[in-house]
Amino acid sequence: MSPKIRRLVKLLSRLPGVGEKTAQRYVLWLLTADDALSRELGGELTSLRDELGPCARCGNIAEIKDGRALCDVCADGKRDAKLVCVVARVHDLMAIERAGSMRGRYFVLGRLLSPLEGIGPEDLPIAKLIERIRSEDVAEVIVATPPSVDGEATALLLKRELSPLGVAITRIASGVPHGGDLEFADPITMGRALSGRRAL
Ligand SMILES: [Zn+2]
After folding, report:
1. Ligand 1 centre and the CA of 97: distance in Å?
2. Which listed site, 94, 102, 103, 106, has its alpha carbon 20 to 30 Å from 38?
3. Do 158 and 169 form a contact (C-beta atoms < 8 A)?
């Protein structure tokens, strides 16, 4: 195998869900398919990190304009600024948006509390969340971390840290399967989980 192919296979196999065999299949495919495909793919990948980044306010994916990133949800003036939904990952935010029943805005933690993986409270952006709640006069925080061990531990941590602020803290109802990923919940289940939220 040429060193160029080996390098590309190695890079592609670092993507989630792509093993070495699949990576090799991709490279061979790109070499035989219309050459516009690999050129276009290369161009998009080159500019990806310059044009998109985490939203400065909520952590959602946003377009970077004039060195500043503000996502579509944060820029949407019709959203209820007093309602903030806390999620673990951008995938979860997208799943909730697909369900279409969330009228507030979001805050992406980026990770969950996980003693097993050595992720402690200091590794989560709690101070940034508290600052946001204070500065935007948020009335309710919906905790939409997944119903897993780490998701529940994170929900309890948020309750402990946010309770002194006097903000209402609610947790999405079950309906999302235990241990399941929010990403795979269908829109109806997600809608019910949100509307059936209760005080945490
Ligand atoms: Zn945002």
Report:
1. 13
2. 94
3. yes
**70 C-alpha to center of ligand 1: Å?**
5
Compute the C-alpha angle 35/39/41, nearest 5°.
115
**Ligand 1 centroid, distance to 32 Cα (angstroms):** 40
pLDDT in tens, 127-185: 999 999 999 999 999 999 988 889 989 999 999 999 999 999 999 876 656 566 777 67
pTM above 0.85, yes or no: no
N residues, the chain: 200
**Ligand 1 centre from 11 Cα, in Å?**
30
Give the span between the Cα atoms of 82 and 138, in whole angstroms.
Answer: 4
Q: What is the tens place of the pLDDT at every residue in 53-83?
A: 999 999 999 999 998 999 999 999 999 999 9
